[in-house]
Automatic annotation (TrEMBL):
Organism: Paramicrosporidium saccamoebae
Secretion signal span: none
Record-annotated Helicase ATP-binding domain positions: 178-355
Keywords of the record: ATP-binding, Helicase, Hydrolase, Nucleotide-binding
Domain Helicase C-terminal, chain residue ranges per copy: 383-602
Keyword Nucleotide-binding annotated: yes
Protein name, as recorded: RNA helicase
GO MF annotation terms: ATP binding; hydrolase activity; RNA binding; RNA helicase activity
Enzyme Commission number(s) of this protein: 3.6.4.13
Keyword Magnesium: no
Record-linked Gene3D superfamilies: 1.20.120.1080, P-loop containing nucleotide triphosphate hydrolases
Family, similarity comment: Belongs to the DEAD box helicase family. DEAH subfamily.
Enzyme class: hydrolase
Biased composition (Acidic residues): 442-458
Length: 885
């Protein structure tokens, strides 16, 4: 029998003693758990000194770059009007030494899910970009971030600038934005046009020390824009607001003003994409802001995919090697709420935080038309006249689809208001001393205009377009091909006593802020290029824009006060025919450049590359097949591999089809400068003014075009539209003065802006030629002789061998062939199975009077019931690979 152990008698404990005992026990448990907690915090890359203080959970703290003990300066303006230094408090969140709830503190560390250092201790040499195409979705574990170190930079803003900034909706969200950036590598900011995110978020980062060499984040603040004019204008505006214009710079194609003092760099997305190809981790940047992501520009989509991996790799290195690498923040800014594709798990896991900013500063009243007009340009004209004659002062912004419509409407306004038509819109006016092509249009005091039925709603139907007004109308254009100095005029105040009227394409839809716009007239249409990857056919279509884009256009009227948007379409059309959002560019553009770029970066399976939206089915495969035929890729065991030729092609800032021609000419040392000039021409495009979409109404005009002076540039006999462009550039380069070049462009109907772009591209390619082939003489200007023409025609034929066509000598023998006044051709090779085999030579071609038997074409354009081949070159069967005829 086992003896029982006596059980000690348990004395009942009173409530007071029991409570004291529970406090003692909790204190003991906390003390025992403290070493483990600190060890876990250390593993999570928190500094030990951040845990030492128990005071002031939120401490106002300001760190100045110079004289830390200097007394703060009041936010006031000096008596002489000089800008004053404006100081601002920031708040630093500290981890308390004595946590009131240990479980909550531990849970907060668990929620952060920081990887241990052993998982991230990778050397720079070990980092590879291959995971980009092998990981379909990002790892569910968020990456660690080094601790945020507080830093503050003073600015020199005037009181006026401070007042303007304080009225912007995004200004009230500064604390929220910076707190989010503190703890997240990727942040999405969603705010409609007018919120101020483009100009203010870079300044928030600037004041937090980003870009300052002495700060914990010394790298540049990079801000991308889809358009050059936006990058240049936004850089200028931010520099003015900061009071330190030398700290803000821009870089666009052929124009860079970046210096050693630059801290904020505005650039086009293509510039950053080129830098990313050379430096995948973007080591010279501390923050990247992708603006206007809602436009779904091809380059922006590619950047989002690449940066989703680059940011992850960069921050892992920053945790494991903080003495060598600093973290990188990514901010994606969108003007619409369509951000689901930006937050997909294949890009970012966990989902990045989303900050929504209020939209317009002022309400905008929408006015729909009762009926949708068939001629939107005529409807826009009548609406402008009504607004100008009946409504209070305020600028008018009119959205049209292209330059042709802008010129047509401007001439009609000039006729109504008794001013000569503006011919300068058909030319690039580079005369800096002139007032510019858009002069003030004085009204006629009495006139009898045509009577037209009003399709507008009741709010404008009561007004008459015949009402007299003595206020002049100041008309300005805004489109991408306009010279920069002319584009900048829309940002200047109009002459006193005039009403500003801006006729623009969708370039004015986002980013740009035109002062004093109170009225928007929106045709609701947009011109977009569509590309068929299987056939190579492409066409421009004028189609309804998206509901999101229409909202962006309307927002232009609410920047300075309550505004009005007059939509030249009915509400039923808006609801039923407008898509919610515009389709991404990646679904309507060739993929060869993207695939070649990804292959160069070591991404073996481009079809697996994480993009916000997938390209059309088979587009990537078709692009790889095209690159295989070019020799840029070669067949591999598992996937096509990039060749040495492909790597050389990828280094050139032109499309693969022309970079191959250039590399081949350089390698053979045959007319290298001539090839560089030709590649420059092809990278810019058709420089002639009258290059427009063809229809039956233009037949007679196009045929008479054969007697224009530009036929002198085609040679006798003409052999190529492309070589005519080249000859135009070579003669342009030989002209020494600016005025003489302007006269030359005027004589031959050339766009001065494009000719300048070709010149700058030629200079760039000359530098690359000199760097890679030092023995080549780059001093003498190339000449286009007969042998040079034949050399280039051979290379063009090889590059365009998939786009060959044979003339139909006897059209009567082809059943169902439409009778047209232009030569008919039959497409050869692969394209014959993809599109209708019969096409017609475009009437703007210089070869139409002497059509060759065999040619290659650059574009296949689909028009209603007809297809045209455009930009053609005469070739010979010996220059083409074997094709199925």
């Amino acid at each position: 029998m086992v003896a029982s152990t006596p059980v000690p008698e348990v004395t009942a404990m009173g409530k007071r003693k029991a409570k004291q005992f529970e406090k003692y026990l909790a204190k003991k448990l906390k003390k025992d758990a403290r070493p483990e907690l600190l060890a876990r915090l250390g593993q999570s890359a928190f500094r030990t000194d951040a845990l030492q203080s128990t005071k002031n959970l939120l401490v106002p703290s300001r760190r100045e770059t110079a004289k830390p003990k200097e007394a703060p300066v009041d936010n006031a303006e000096s008596s002489d009007g000089e800008p004053v230094v404006v100081a601002k408090k920031t708040f630093v969140r500290r981890v308390p030494e004595e946590a009131t709830d240990l479980n909550a503190a531990i849970a907060s560390i668990k929620r952060s899910s920081l990887n241990p250092l052993s998982d991230t201790a990778e050397s720079t040499s070990d980092v590879s970009v291959e995971p980009l195409d092998t990981v379909q979705e990002a790892d569910a574990t968020p990456d660690p971030l080094p601790p945020w170190e507080t830093y503050f930079v003073l600015t020199e803003r005037t009181r006026e600038i401070e007042e303007q900034r304080s009225k912007l909706p995004v200004f009230a969200e500064e604390q929220s934005i910076m707190e989010t950036l503190r703890s997240n590598a990727v942040t999405i900011i969603c705010g409609e046009t007018g919120s101020g995110k483009t100009t203010q978020v870079p300044q928030f980062l600037y004041e937090a020390g980003f870009g300052d060499r002495d700060s914990p984040n010394p790298g540049l603040i990079g801000v991308t824009q889809p358009r050059r004019v936006a990058a240049v204008s936004m850089a200028r505006r931010v520099g003015e607001e900061l009071g330190r214009p030398l700290h803000v710079a821009h870089q666009v194609r052929y124009d860079a003003v970046v210096t050693r003092d630059t801290r904020i760099k505005f650039m086009t997305d293509g510039i950053l994409l080129r830098e990313l190809a050379d430096d995948f981790l973007l080591t010279k940047y501390s923050a990247i802001l992708l603006d206007e992501a809602h436009e779904r520009n091809l380059n922006t989509d590619i950047l989002i995919g690449m940066l989703s991996r680059a940011v992850r790799l960069r921050n892992r290195l920053a945790c494991s090697q903080p003495e060598k690498t600093r973290p990188l923040r990514l901010v994606i800014m969108s003007a619409t709420l369509n951000i689901d594709e930006f937050t997909a798990p294949r890009l970012f896991t966990p989902t990045p935080p989303i900050i929504r900013v209020d939209a317009r500063q002022h309400p905008v009243t929408m006015h729909f038309s009762r009926k949708t007009p068939t001629d939107h340009v005529d409807a826009a004209y009548r609406m402008i006249c009504k607004v100008h004659a009946n409504l209070p002062p305020g600028g008018v912004l009119v959205f049209l689809t292209g330059k042709q419509e802008i010129v047509r409407l401007a001439r009609r306004l000039a006729q109504r208001y008794n001013k000569r038509p503006i011919n300068a819109w058909n030319e690039d006016d580079d005369d800096d001393g002139a007032e510019g092509p858009m002069e003030t249009i004085e009204p006629i005091e009495s006139e009898e205009d045509e009577k037209a039925q009003s399709d507008s709603d009741d709010s404008m139907g009561q007004f008459s377009m015949d009402a007299e007004t003595r206020e002049p109308l100041h008309v300005l254009p805004l489109y991408s091909l306009l010279a920069p100095e002319e584009q900048n005029k829309v940002f200047q105040l109009p002459p006193e006593g005039t009403r500003l009227c801006v006729l623009a394409t969708n370039v004015a839809e986002t980013s740009l802020t035109i002062p004093n716009i109170r009225y928007v007239v929106d045709c609701g249409l947009v011109k977009q290029r569509h590309f068929d990857a299987t056939s190579g056919a492409q066409q421009y279509r004028v189609e309804w824009t998206s509901q999101a884009s229409a909202t962006q256009r309307a927002g232009r009227a609410g920047r300075v006060g309550p505004g009005h948007c007059y939509r030249l379409f009915s509400s039923a059309v808006f609801d039923q025919q407008f898509p919610p959002f515009s389709p991404p560019e990646i679904q309507r553009t060739p993929m060869e450049s993207l695939v070649l770029q990804l292959k160069t970066m070591g991404i073996d399976h481009p079809e697996r590359f994480p993009l916000p939206s997938a390209p059309p089915s088979g587009a990537v495969i078709a692009a790889q097949q095209s690159l295989l035929r070019m020799g840029a890729l070669c067949a591999g065991d598992d996937f096509p591999r990039i060749t040495l030729l492909g790597r050389k092609m990828a280094k050139l800032p032109i499309a693969p089809i022309w970079s191959r021609l250039l590399v081949m000419s350089w390698e053979m040392d045959e007319y290298p400068l001539l090839a560089a000039a030709f590649a420059s021409v092809m990278s810019v495009g058709d420089p002639f003014l009258d290059d427009q979409s063809f229809d039956k109404d233009h037949t007679e005009q196009s045929q008479s075009h054969s007697h224009s002076p530009r036929t002198e540039l085609a040679g006798k006999p003409p052999t190529s539209d492309l070589l005519m462009w080249l000859n135009a550039l070579l003669q342009y380069l030989a002209i020494p003065t600016k005025n003489a070049r302007n006269e030359y462009c005027s004589r031959f109907g050339l766009m001065g802006k494009r000719m300048e772009e070709m010149t700058q591209q030629f200079q760039l390619l000359k530098r690359l030629l000199k760097q890679n082939y030092p023995g080549v003489d780059c001093q003498e200007l190339p000449k286009l002789g007969r042998s040079g023409q034949q050399h280039l025609r051979k290379l063009i034929s090889q590059s365009l061998s998939e786009r060959a066509a044979e003339r139909i000598v006897n059209p009567k023998n082809v059943p169902g062939l439409k009778r047209m006044p232009f030569p008919a051709y039959r497409i050869l090779g692969r394209a014959a199975d993809d599109v209708s085999a019969v096409v017609y030579l475009h009437p703007t071609s210089v070869l139409r009077t002497m059509p060759p038997l065999l040619l290659v074409y650059t574009e296949l354009i689909t028009a209603p019931e007809t297809r045209y081949i455009k930009y053609v070159t005469a070739t010979e069967s010996a220059w083409l690979p074997s094709v199925d005829k």
